[in-house]
């Protein structure tokens, strides 16, 4: 499996194959959200097939926000999400960030487990709608 930096167009291709997202992202919506902030867009590819994506951007000089990511159904349970997460962390460290922040929802148990298994700590719980939509805010210190 190869993890590589990419552009918004390729990221949108992968995101469009992940049904769990509540709305469809476009190149324009990604550009609008990220703006001019330093950012990283990664994809995971195996045998020419795009299996996952991870997008993040700078919140401030010390903090990188891991905003959006996922794995297509046929790529799950193969370590794709974990490989993307590790690559993002290494990149953030190299760029001098001191921490990474990420949010997830109760409904995404595999994501929650992966974050906890990789040293992320729950910092805050945001109650939204039903309990499955509660958002957990995580932080990982990189140094």
Structure description:
This protein has 143 residues and is an alpha+beta fold. The chain has one domain (2-141): Gcn5-related N-acetyltransferase (GNAT) (Aminopeptidase). Helices cover 28% and strands 37% of the residues. The chain contains 4 helices and 7 strands, in the order E-H-H-E-E-E-H-E-H-E-E. A 7-stranded mixed sheet has the order 1-2-3-4-5-7-6, sandwiched between helices. The longest helix has 15 residues, at 80-94. The radius of gyration is 14 Å and the shape is globular. The two termini are 28 Å apart. The relative contact order is 0.15. The mean pLDDT is 95.
The SSE order reads EHHEEEHEHEE
Task: Tell me what the CATH architecture is.
Answer: 3-Layer(aba) Sandwich
CATH fold-level name: Aminopeptidase
Radius of gyration: 14 Å
Helical residue percent band: 25-40%
Q: What's the structural domain tally?
A: 1
Distance separating the two termini? 28 Å
Largest sheet: 7 strands, mixed
Please tally the β strands and state the result: 7
């Amino acid at each position: 499996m190869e993890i590589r930096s990419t552009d918004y167009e390729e990221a949108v291709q992968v995101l469009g194959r992940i049904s769990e997202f509540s709305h469809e992202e476009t190149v324009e919506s990604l550009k609008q959200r990220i703006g001019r902030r330093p950012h990283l867009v990664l994809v995971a590819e195996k045998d020419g097939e795009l299996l996952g994506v991870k997008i993040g951007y700078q919140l401030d000089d010390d903090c990188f926000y891991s905003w959006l990511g996922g794995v297509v159904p046929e790529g799950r349970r193969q370590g794709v999400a974990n490989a993307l997460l590790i690559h993002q962390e290494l990149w953030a460290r190299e760029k001098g960030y001191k921490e990474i922040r990420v949010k997830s929802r109760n409904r995404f148990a595999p994501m929650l487990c992966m974050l906890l298994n990789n040293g992320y700590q729950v910092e805050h719980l945001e109650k939204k709608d039903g309990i499955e939509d509660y958002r957990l805010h995580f932080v990982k210190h990189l140094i």
